[in-house]
Automatic annotation (TrEMBL):
Molecular-function annotations in GO: 4 iron, 4 sulfur cluster binding; metal ion binding; molybdopterin cofactor binding; oxidoreductase activity
The protein, known as: Assimilatory nitrate reductase, large subunit
EC number: 1.7.99.4
Keyword Oxidoreductase applies: yes
An individual GO BP term: cellular respiration
Cofactor: Mo-bis(molybdopterin guanine dinucleotide); [4Fe-4S] cluster
Recorded superkingdom: Bacteria
CDD domains: MopB_CT_Nitrate-R-NapA-like, MopB_Nitrate-R-NapA-like
Recorded GO CC terms: membrane; oxidoreductase complex
PANTHER family recorded: NADPH-FE(3+) OXIDOREDUCTASE SUBUNIT ALPHA, RESPIRATORY NITRATE REDUCTASE
Record-linked InterPro entries: Asp_de-COase-like_dom_sf (IPR009010), BFD-like_2Fe2S-bd_dom_sf (IPR041854), CT_Nitrate-R-NapA-like (IPR041957), MoPterin_dinucl-bd_dom (IPR006657), Mopterin_OxRdtase (IPR006656), Mopterin_OxRdtase_4Fe-4S_dom (IPR006963), Mopterin_OxRdtase_prok_CS (IPR006655), MopterinOxRdtase_cofactor_BS (IPR027467)
C-alpha cells in the first residue's frame, strides 16, 4: 500500500507520520522512523489520525461545499465556489471602501501551514493594508515571543529536543508534557532511564501525571512563578552559583535584576508560593548545577504576567550560562503544530515576515520591496488589533467584516459573553473550516470548506525550529480546498475591487508560496535561503539554514540578536493573578488539556476510543471539598465567575489542592468563566486563572441514556442530539465503543428545570422501536426504556427521573455480554445492579482498551503472591520492583505497549499499590 510522508497536525512536537492510503482513502498511519522529532513514535492522538479521516467519519462531519445563509442560525444553502469567493471579495472591498482598511479583520490559527499564513498575511498587510490580522497564537505563544524578544533580542528558541538526552536538570514548568507533548515526554523518559542521575523538577499548582513522576514537584500557588524564579536567583547569588564571567561577557542589565531579587529570599517566596523553602533551595541548586534545560508551556504564557514569567525564567539561564550549550537552554514548547511557522511569516498583528516588526519603518520598507509593492505604496504603520482586541472592536461595532480560519473562537477565546456579542454584531463573518460542528459556525454568514490533514501541501515548524513537510495523501472531500488557495483566490478578486498595490497572488502551487516566504528570511536570524523544497521532503531541517544545513542550537557563541550582541536581563516586579480569590469567588479555577483530546474536539471528539479517556467534562475538586459539601461524584454543580456560569458534574481529583479547581479546556462552555485580562506586553489573556464560586445545582428533570447505533449514523445523531440539548440547562453527548472494530454508539446526559425532550432523544437513540421494554410513572416523572438484542445483550437504555442506575447500565452496555437477568429486571433496578459484575473503571490504555479496574485487579492478584519468587511487588517495593511490576503488567494486559501515552498513569498505579499495601 502506498505511504505518503507527512507531519502530525496536532501538537508542536511535530512528529513525522507515514500515511497509508488506497484509492483516495486514508487507511492507516504510523510514526515515521526517520523523522528526527519522533523516530517512529506517535501518541494516542497521532496513532488514531487515520480513524478521524475514515470516509464514514468524513461523510458525517466534514464541510464539503461552500455554504451561505440569509439569517444567522438559520438553514445553510449551498453555493458555488465562484459565487462564494466573489461574495467575500465584495463584502470586504465594500467595508474597506466605506470604512477604511482597519474596518476588516482576520483571525487565524497556529494550525495553518506556513504557506496558508503567508498568503493571508500578504492579503491583509500587502493588499488591504491593515495590520488587523492576528491568530490564536495570541492565546498560546505570544508571551514566549515577547519573552525571547526582550531578553535574547529575537523570537528564537535556543535549544533542541536532543538536549533532553544531555541535560543534568530538566526544569519543567507550567507544562503537563506527559499529556500535551507526549512523544517528547517519551524522550524525557528515555533520557532518565539512560542517566538516572538526571533531575527533573516540575512546577505546577496541580499534581499532574508529569508532576507525579518528578524528582521534585513544586505545587506553587497559581500565578506566583515570578516570585519563584526570583527566589531561585536570589539563592544562586547567595551561594555563589551564578556564572559571573558569562554575565560580564554576554549580558547587560544584571545590576537592576540583582537589586530586584534581593527582597525575594527563598523564605519569603515559600510564603508567597505556598511551597517549602527547602524545595525552592533544592530547585535552585539543581538548576545551577546543570546543564539545565527548561521546558514550559501555558502555565507561564497564559497569564497577565506572561511575559514576566518568561523573562524571569530566561534570566536564570543567562545568569548561570546554561544557554547555547549541549543539554542546556530555554525550550518553550509550542502548542500547535505550526505556531512557530506563523511567527516566522509575521502572522501576528505587530509582526511582519522574517521576524520583522510593523513598528519599524525599515522593516516595512523591506517587506514592501519583497512583496513587489508599486513605488510609493507603503505598508500600514497603524498597529493592528491583537486577538481579543479584534473581538472587542467587533463588539463595539468598529469591525465590518471578519474572516476566521482554522480556529474556533466561539469556544476558545476567554470571556465568551463578549466574543458572542462581537460575532453577533459584526455584519459579515466568514468561517473557513474543515468541520461543520465547530461552535463558531453558528455565528457565520458564509462557510468556506477547507482541506485538512492528509489533503494539503505545505510546511510546518515545530518547537525546536524544525521545518517539516506536510503532504497530501488523498484528495479533499467534496469541493473542499486548501486554505492558501482560498485566500489567494479571494485576493485576486479583491485586487480588482481595491486600489492595486502591485502585490501578486498568482502562485501555481504551495512550493511557489514557500519560495516567497524563504526569500523574506534572507539575512534574518531565521535565514533559510539555503534550503530547497525537494531537500525538505527528504530531511526536516532546523532554521537557520543559510547554507542549507540546519543548526541545532543558537547563541553558542554568546552573541545575541540585540544591537550590541548582549542578552538583556529583565527585572520584572511580581504581580499576583489578575483576579484574586475573595469571599464571593473563593475557588481558584484553572483550565488545561486532556491526554486524548484536541481543543474543540472537532477531530478527536469523533472517536469513541479517544472519548473514553476523559469521559464527561467535569469540574475537578479536591476530594475534601466534596466531602465537606456532602456532594457525591457526578452531581451537577454551577460554577460561576464574574462573567458567566456553567453547569458541570463534579469529579473528585487528588491533582488539585483544596480551594482550587480544574476544568478541561475542551469543555464547550469553559470560557464563559475565563477573564479577558491580559499581559500588557504580549496581550496574552490569563486563561489559566479565574476566581469562581461553586454551588449545588438541582435540576428536577434528569435524563441519562446510551445505545449502540449504526456506524454511519453515530456522528450525525450526535449532532442532532447536541442541537436538542441546547434547549436544556445541561447537555453532554459523546461517542462510545471502539474504532475500527466497533460497535459504536452514544452516551448522553441531559438535565433541565422543566421536562425536556425525552421522546426525541429516544427516537434518535433507537429506543422508540417495537420490542423496547418500557416503564413509565408520569406521576413521579420517571421513565425507563431498555432494549435487549437477540443474544440477550443490552443494546440501549434510557433513564429519566431516577438515574441512579446509569453507571452500571453503561458498564453492562459496554461489556456486551449476555445479560445475567431478564431485561425486565433492569426496568426496576436502582443504584445497585441486580447482579454484581466487575466494573471496567476509567480507561487507561487507549491503544489496547485497558481499563483501570483490570489493572488494579492484576496488581492486587500479584500483590497477594508477595514473598514468592516473581511476586514481590506487593511489599515495600523499590524502584526496581516497580519496573519489574510494570513490565509484567505490560506483558499480561498489553497496556502501555503501543503508543506509551498511558505509561505515566500505569506507573502511578504501580507506585500506588505500595501505599495501598502498606
Ligand atoms: N492532548 C493534547 N495535547 C495538546 C493540546 C491539546 O488540546 N490536547 N494542545 C496543544 C496546545 S495548542 C498547547 S498550547 C499545549 C498546552 O500544553 P500545556 O501547557 O502543557 O497544557 P495545559 O494543560 O494547558 O497547562 C499546563 C499546566 O499549567 C498549569 N498551571 C496553571 N496555572 C499555573 C501557574 O500559575 N504556574 C505554573 N507554573 N503552572 C500553572 C496547569 O495546572 C497545567 O497542568 O498543548 C498542546 N498539546
Ligand atoms: N480556557 C482555556 N481556553 C483556551 C486555552 C486554555 O488552556 N484554556 N488554550 C488556548 C490555546 S493555547 C489555544 S492554541 C486555543 C486553541 O483553540 P482553537 O484554535 O479554537 O482550537 P481548535 O479546536 O484546534 O480549532 C481549530 C479549528 O480548525 C478546524 N480545522 C482543522 N483542520 C483545518 C484546516 O486544515 N483548515 C481549516 N481552515 N480549518 C481546520 C478544526 O475543525 C477546528 O474547529 O485555545 C485557547 N483557549
Ligand atoms: S506528540 Fe502526539 S499529537 Fe504531538 S505531534 Fe506527536 S503524535 Fe502528534
Ligand atoms: Mo495553544
Amino acid at each position: 500500500m502506498p505511504e505518503t510522508r507527512s507531519t502530525c497536525p496536532y501538537c508542536g512536537v511535530g512528529c513525522g507520520v507515514l500515511v497509508a492510503h488506497a484509492d483516495g482513502v486514508v487507511t492507516g498511519v504510523r510514526g515515521d522512523p526517520e523523522h528526527p522529532a519522533n523516530r517512529g513514535r506517535l501518541c494516542s492522538k497521532g496513532q488514531t489520525l487515520h480513524l478521524t479521516a475514515a470516509p464514514v467519519v468524513t461523510a458525517q462531519v466534514r464541510a464539503t461545499r461552500p455554504l451561505r445563509r440569509a439569517v444567522r442560525g438559520g438553514p445553510w444553502a449551498e453555493l458555488g465556489w465562484d459565487e462564494a469567493l466573489d461574495e467575500v471579495a465584495t463584502r470586504f472591498a465594500d467595508a474597506v471602501a466605506q470604512h477604511g482598511p482597519d474596518a476588516v479583520g482576520f483571525y487565524l490559527s497556529g494550525q495553518l501551514l506556513t504557506e496558508d499564513y503567508h498568503v493571508f498575511n500578504k492579503l491583509a498587510k500587502g493588499l488591504v493594508r491593515t495590520n488587523n490580522l492576528d491568530t490564536n497564537s495570541r492565546l498560546c505563544m505570544s508571551s514566549a515571543v515577547a519573552g525571547y524578544q526582550d531578553t535574547l533580542g529575537s523570537d528564537a528558541v535556543p535549544a533542541c529536543y536532543d538536549d533532553l538526552a544531555q541535560a543534568g536538570t530538566v526544569f519543567v514548568t507550567g507544562s503537563n508534557m506527559a499529556w500535551a507533548h507526549p512523544v517528547l515526554y517519551r524522550r524525557l523518559e528515555d533520557a532518565r532511564r539512560a542517566r538516572p542521575q538526571m533531575k527533573v523538577v516540575v512546577v505546577d499548582p496541580r499534581r499532574t501525571e508529569t508532576a507525579a513522576e518528578a524528582d521534585l514537584h513544586l505545587p506553587i500557588l497559581p500565578g506566583t512563578d515570578v516570585v519563584l524564579h526570583h527566589a531561585m536567583l536570589h539563592l544562586m547569588l547567595w551561594e555563589g552559583r551564578t556564572d559571573a564571567a558569562y554575565i560580564a561577557a554576554h549580558t547587560r542589565g544584571f545590576d537592576a535584576l540583582r537589586d530586584r531579587v534581593r527582597e525575594f529570599s527563598p523564605a519569603v517566596a515559600a510564603k508567597v508560593c505556598g511551597v517549602p523553602e527547602a524545595d525552592i533551595v533544592q530547585a535552585a541548586r539543581w538548576f545551577a548545577d546543570g546543564p539545565t534545560l527548561s521546558a514550559w508551556c501555558m502555565g507561564l504564557n497564559q497569564s497577565h504576567a506572561g511575559t514576566d514569567k518568561n523573562t524571569s525564567l530566561i534570566n536564570l539561564h543567562l545568569a548561570t550560562g546554561w544557554i547555547g550549550r549541549p543539554g542546556a537552554g530555554p525550550l518553550s514548547l509550542t502548542g500547535q503544530p505550526n505556531a512557530m511557522g506563523g511567527r516566522e511569516v509575521g502572522g501576528l498583528s505587530h509582526l511582519l515576515p522574517g521576524h520583522r516588526l510593523v513598528a519599524d519603518p525599515a522593516h516595512r520598507a523591506e517587506v514592501a520591496a519583497l512583496w513587489g509593492l508599486a513605488p510609493g505604496v507603503e505598508l500600514s504603520a497603524r498597529p493592528g488589533k491583537a486577538a481579543l482586541e479584534l473581538f472587542e472592536a467587533a463588539a463595539d461595532g468598529a469591525l465590518q467584516a471578519l474572516w476566521i480560519a482554522c480556529t474556533n473562537p466561539a469556544q476558545s477565546l476567554p470571556d465568551q459573553a463578549l466574543v458572542r456579542r462581537a460575532l453577533e454584531r459584526c455584519p459579515f463573518v466568514v468561517l473557513q473550516e474543515a468541520y461543520l460542528g465547530a461552535a463558531t459556525a453558528a455565528f457565520a454568514d458564509l462557510l468556506l470548506p477547507a482541506a485538512s490533514w492528509a489533503e494539503k501541501e505545505g510546511t510546518v515548524t515545530n518547537s525546536e525550529r524544525r521545518i517539516s513537510r506536510v503532504r497530501a495523501a488523498v484528495p479533499p472531500p467534496g469541493e473542499a480546498r486548501a486554505d492558501w488557495r482560498i485566500a489567494a483566490d479571494v485576493a485576486r478578486r479583491l485586487q480588482r475591487r481595491l486600489p492595486d498595490t502591485g502585490a501578486r497572488f498568482d502562485w501555481p502551487d504551495a512550493e511557489a508560496v514557500w519560495c516567497e516566504h524563504r526569500a523574506a528570511t534572507r539575512g534574518r536570524d531565521l535565514d533559510i535561503s539555503g534550503l530547497d523544497w525537494a531537500a525538505l521532503e527528504r530531511q526536516p531541517v532546523q532554521w537557520p539554514a543559510p547554507q542549507g544545513v540546519g543548526r541545532e542550537r543558537l547563541f553558542g557563541d554568546g552573541v545575541f540578536a540585540t544591537p550590541d550582541g548582549r542578552a538583556c536581563f529583565q527585572a520584572p516586579a511580581w504581580r499576583p493573578v489578575a483576579e484574586p480569590r475573595d469571599a464571593r469567588h473563593p475557588v481558584a479555577l484553572t483550565t488545561g488539556r486532556w491526554r486524548d483530546q484536541w481543543h474543540g474536539m472537532t477531530r478527536t471528539g469523533t472517536l469513541a476510543r479517544l472519548a473514553a479517556h476523559g469521559g464527561e467534562p467535569a469540574l475537578e475538586l479536591h476530594p475534601q471539598e466534596l466531602d465537606r459539601r456532602h456532594w457525591s461524584p457526578g452531581r451537577l454543580v454551577r460554577v460561576s465567575s464574574r462573567r458567566g456560569s456553567v453547569l458541570l458534574p463534579v469529579r473528585p481529583s487528588d491533582a488539585v489542592a483544596p480551594a482550587q479547581a480544574f476544568i478541561a479546556m475542551h469543555a464547550p462552555q469553559v470560557n464563559r468563566l475565563t477573564t479577558p485580562q491580559r499581559c500588557p506586553r504580549s496581550k496574552q489573556p490569563e486563561l489559566k486563572h479565574a476566581a469562581v464560586r461553586v454551588e449545588a445545582a438541582d435540576l428536577p428533570w434528569q435524563l441519562e441514556a446510551a445505545a449502540w447505533l449504526p456506524a454511519d449514523a453515530v456522528l450525525t445523531r450526535q449532532a442532532a442530539l447536541q442541537a436538542l440539548g441546547e434547549a436544556c440547562a445541561y447537555a453532554h453527548v459523546r461517542p462510545i465503543g471502539r474504532e475500527p472494530e466497533g460497535p459504536l454508539g452514544l452516551a448522553l446526559r441531559f438535565a433541565h428545570e422543566a421536562p425536556g425532550p425525552l421522546q426525541a432523544v429516544a427516537e434518535l437513540l433507537g429506543l422508540d422501536a417495537a420490542g423496547v421494554l418500557r416503564y413509565e410513572d408520569p406521576r413521579r416523572g420517571t421513565a425507563r426504556r431498555v432494549r435487549v438484542d437477540d443474544e440477550r445483550r443490552l443494546h440501549g437504555y434510557l433513564l429519566c427521573g431516577d438515574t441512579a442506575a446509569a453507571g452500571w447500565l453503561r458498564d453492562w452496555l459496554l461489556q456486551q455480554e449476555p445479560l445475567p437477568v431478564p431485561g425486565r429486571a433492569l426496568l426496576a433496578a436502582g443504584r445497585v445492579p441486580p447482579v454484581e459484575r466487575p466494573a471496567a473503571g476509567p480507561l487507561v490504555c487507549s491503544c489496547h482498551g485497558v481499563g483501570e479496574a483490570a489493572i488494579r485487579a492484576r496488581l492486587h492478584a500479584a500483590g497477594e503472591g508477595a514473598g514468592e519468587p516473581g511476586g514481590g511487588e506487593g511489599g515495600e517495593g523499590g524502584e526496581d520492583d516497580d519496573a519489574a511490576c510494570l513490565a509484567r503488567l505490560q506483558d499480561e494486559l498489553r497496556c502501555g505497549t503501543a503508543c506509551g501515552s498511558c505509561l505515566p498513569a500505569l506507573k502511578a498505579l504501580v507506585r500506588g499499590r505500595r501505599g495501598a499495601a502498606a
